[in-house]
Amino acid sequence: MRVIHVAGARPNFMKIAPLMEAVVHYNREHTQRPMEQFLVHTGQHYDEPMSKLFFDELGISKPDVNLEVGSASHARQTAEIMKRFEPVVEQWRPDVVSVVGDVNSTAACAMTAAKMGIRTAHVEAGLRSHDREMPEEINRLVTDALSDFLFATSRGACENLRREGIPDEKIFFVGNTMIDTLMRHRELARRPAFLDGRSMGQFAVVTLHRPSNVDQPRVFEEILDAFEELGKRIPIIFSVHPRTRDMAEKFGLLERMERQENLTLTDPLGYLEFLYLLAHASFAMTDSGGIQEETTALGIPCLTIRENTERPETVKEGTNVLVGANHARIVREGEAILEGRGKRGRIPEKWDGRAAQRIVRVLAELAD
Fold it and tell me: Would the N or C end of the chain have less CB density within 10 A of its end CB?
């Protein structure tokens, strides 16, 4: 059986790494019927040094193909990925195209495979924010509607798929491959040099990149106001996404961020350094979906700077609290954590480090 794995952006790498490793382990045990796997990097995130760092740290082999699509509007980028992915599928004629997450690469390659009559497996199927202003939500809906194997991270995600008319025989509750990667690499996490003498629990971690937070100067400023107030009580480390830095500079906010006392700005970090930060932080503030999951798995409180989440199990069961972009709510919940009143959670069902093994087992049994 031939499988093409597709990765396009940094969050995809963490989800694809355990899947490729699980195929290698499967082949060692099934030498008579091995799976042949290929990796396509679409180049949607086109920072070559950062991509290489993630591949090296996660032990992912060099991509068989890099489509090098680069940056563009959502429509142009999606179209360009489809155009460049089609000849790859024609050349390799896979039995299954495996896509992960909810980025443009995911939807583009799922559409291409479906039009070419190739079965598609969606890893992380069924997540819903119910907010169609998010491009990721459109990608999720399109990909799930077209996929033949829908691998869900939670029972709630399975129910979302059933409500949309997906038949049960296509839905598989397997767990979360992002957590597979976290569990494998936690002991390898690397302390960033800039931490100096700071120790566990004596800092908070921030990431921010969604248009709803950084594309509107008044919203961005309100979030920075909250960071400034919390920064009086705890040092904050802000891993700044390139797009966030660009918007901050455009709105004249970058100089304020650089001057802000107790706020340390860093460039995007490698996986192992950022994992160290998360694992040793007092709490995280973010608008990232993956960090909501990682903090829940680590037992670290998380304040999500959004009004909704496609990962409700991190709120219902985990350590996550939705605070929106509201200054008062961010500060109130941050202070609650610092005063020992932070939310405690538990690790959701099947977030046990074996999701990728379950996926490979399903593909082996059903893809023939």
Answer: C
